[in-house]
Amino acid sequence: MITEHDPQTALDTRFSSPDATTTTWLEGREGLAAAELYWLSTVRRDGRPHVTPLIAVWCDGALCFCTGPEEQKARNLAHNPRCVLTTGAGVLHEGLDLVVEGEAELVRDDATLGRIAAAYGAKYGEEWTFQVRDGAFHHDGHTALVFRVAPATAFGFRKGAYGQTRWRF
């Protein structure tokens, strides 16, 4: 199991209201864990961006998601593991938008996959119950690869009293 540590935290005053304060990593991490929908940005072999919505869970200090081995995002990550996951409220004047930059690591360890599968079930319900075997998720005759993205850098964009916090790990 991966342990988490507190990142370096800084408010970027160039993009923040004069009265803004930093957002704590605890609040950022809780926002990442609670979000229902995320946007994954990857890069195709020819350099074009690829963005897709997906569901994910926070487990062992990282955002974890699954995808079919032939899906575009899986092919992109096999070529270039650097990616960005974003989530937020989708409104202008309230809430906290979050961005995680990192490298997607393919998870093959069945014990880790078991923890991630349990997190999916707890968060999204029995519709998202996966069997774990042979280093992957299995559901209704389909196989899914599981990736984890531990933050290298993350950003919190507070709205209302606008503040941009950067967390470096």
TrEMBL record:
User: Is Oxidoreductase there in the keyword field?
Assistant: yes
InterPro entries according to UniProt: F420H2_bilvrd_red/Heme_oxyg, Pyridox_Oxase_N, Split_barrel_FMN-bd
Q: Which residues form the Pyridoxamine 5'-phosphate oxidase N-terminal domain?
A: 29-151
Q: Where is the secretion signal located?
A: none
The source's superkingdom equals Bacteria
Where is the region Disordered?
1-20
Specify residue ranges for compositional bias: Polar residues: 10-20
Sorted alphabetically, the keyword list is: Oxidoreductase
PANTHER family reported in the protein's UniProt record = HEME OXYGENASE HI_0854-RELATED, PYRIDOXAMINE 5'-PHOSPHATE OXIDASE-RELATED FMN-BINDING
Q: What is the name of this protein?
A: Pyridoxamine 5'-phosphate oxidase family protein
Q: Which organism is it from?
A: Streptomyces mordarskii
